[in-house]
Amino acid sequence: MKLGPAGFVFERYVVRTLESYGYATEVGKHVLGYCVMHEIDVSAKKKRAIIFW
Length: 53
Known about the structure:
alpha+beta, three-stranded antiparallel beta sheet, 3 strands, 25% helix
């Protein structure tokens, strides 16, 4: 709760950490699910590894 109302500060921390390991990152990506749109807080890609959070 101390990180802010939406956890945005923590998301930026995670992004910076993943980028330091060579991942390409995106924040706030929207993906169409079966019935509704979903927000992916952080997505990261490096070669064949993909991380969604």
